[in-house]
Amino acid sequence: MSTHEEFRFSSHHLLIELDAATNRLMMLVVAKEVSGPRWDEAATRQKRAFEAWTVLLNDFESLAEKDQDTGPTS
What we know:
Blueprint: H1 3-30, H2 37-70
């Protein structure tokens, strides 16, 4: 699998988790549950999902820059 395909697969997986975590937070907002253990758990999940996605973006950007510096390998 190419680096681009790996990025797309990982990005898709992480974005699904981020979307689910954000939706959970929004459901709690609608239910007016913006404090307490359920809120804390949902907020932590959303924060971790966002951080995981940004790590992937930063890693891919670094890899893309490195590939650009070295040029094609064929």
